[in-house]
Design goal:
The chain has 10 helices and 15 strands. The protein is an alpha/beta fold. The strands form 4 sheets. The protein has an 8-stranded parallel beta barrel with strand order 3-4-5-8-9-10-11-14, surrounded by 5 helices. A 3-stranded antiparallel beta sheet has the order 2-1-15, with no helix packed on it.
């Protein structure tokens, strides 16, 4: 497993990351045994970057990830979590969370990008994970909270970074233009970009990726399967794209990309994982992994050899934007 460094920091992450949202019971229940085994399998595969958040399962993801990593050498892995949603007692529980996680709703989320909210959120994350520190902290979905996030939350994170409490800071969401503002106008080192630099959507070329290169900062790509449409060798009708039913024209486009992949001896999901990493501003692709089988599949797909001609053929056939770069990244190096 190779790794890349966030240029403004000494933080080095493996090219493939473990997304812990699903072990917080996203959409369906995952057993504690499967969650722990998924983390163990990721470790055995060489993955050393793990991402979580209070939002994921109302803290369940953080609990499970921390427990699975607790006996690992702390200097050998990187953990990121997020701030912006505090977990507070729910005075009117209905029994099950209403935001996509199959967990009890004894707690609820409360938006808070204030200085006190950031400090409290990090303290509570450390309690839930049992870890001694966080390596990366992102502002989580600050879409409707720009002013407080930029004026209060980010300066607070910058202070913590300067004090050595955290090692890198940033923001995560699917609005690439707003992430570009964080890179250009705040102390952010890295942003987590959801679904906007994929085989089906290269809109990040208009804003966040140029901003990252201009300011010597970095992008972590998530949502690279676009809600599942790029997750199978041959996309089928009825699959999801950005959490909705995929339009037929988009399914046909995904199939056309799959045909080019097959002609080059690879598959659509392998190309979906590899594609963001062909951009010099992207340092990592993080995937949700629920159990050992998913981890092994994703690691195997990541390890596949994809010829450079694949990307040029996709571009020549109009299936990727004409200005899509495919530059090798010299920051990539073996992870010890």
């Amino acid at each position: 497993m190779h790794s890349r460094t966030i240029p403004t920091t000494a933080v080095r992450v493996t090219e493939l990351g473990f997304g812990a949202s699903v072990i917080g019971n996203l959409y369906r229940t995952t057993s504690a045994e499967d969650a722990a085994a998924a983390v163990d399998t990721a470790w055995d595969a060489g993955i050393r970057y793990f991402d979580t958040a209070p939002h994921y399962g109302l803290g369940l993801s953080e609990h499970r990830l921390g427990a699975a990593l607790r006996d690992r050498p702390r200097d050998q892995y990187v953990v990121s979590s997020k701030v912006g949603r505090l977990l507070v007692p729910n005075d009117h529980p209905r029994g099950v969370d209403t935001e996509g996680f199959v967990v009890r709703d004894d707690l609820r989320r409360q938006w808070d990008f204030s200085r006190d909210g950031v400090l409290r959120s990090i303290e509570e994350t450390l309690e839930r994970t049992g870890l001694d520190r966080l390596d990366i902290v992102y502002l989580h979905d600050p879409d409707d909270h720009w002013r407080q996030a930029a004026d209060q939350a980010m300066p607070t994170l910058a202070e913590l970074r300067d004090q050595g409490v955290v090692r890198a800071i940033g923001a995560g969401m699917n609005r690439s233009a707003l992430l570009a503002r964080f890179l250009r106008e705040t102390a952010a080192d890295v942003v987590m970009l959801a679904g906007r630099y994929t085989l089906l959507d290269q809109s990040a070329l208009d804003d966040v990726l140029p901003a990252a290169q201009e300011h010597g900062k970095a992008v972590v790509a998530v949502g690279v399967f676009n809600s599942g449409l790029l997750a199978e060798d041959r996309p089928a009708e009825g699959m999801k794209y950005d959490y909705r039913a995929a339009p037929p024209a988009l399914v046909e486009r995904a199939r056309a990309i799959a045909d080019v992949c097959r002609a080059h001896g690879t598959t659509l999901p392998a190309a979906a994982i590899a594609f963001p990493l062909t951009h010099p501003g992207v340092i990592n692709v993080t995937l949700g992994m629920r159990d050992p089988g998913q981890v092994r599949r994703n690691a195997r797909l990541h390890q596949q050899f994809l010829p450079e001609e694949l990307w040029h053929d996709l571009r020549d056939q109009g299936l990727l934007r004409a200005e899509t770069p495919f530059a090798p990244d010299e920051r990539s190096e073996p992870c010890p």
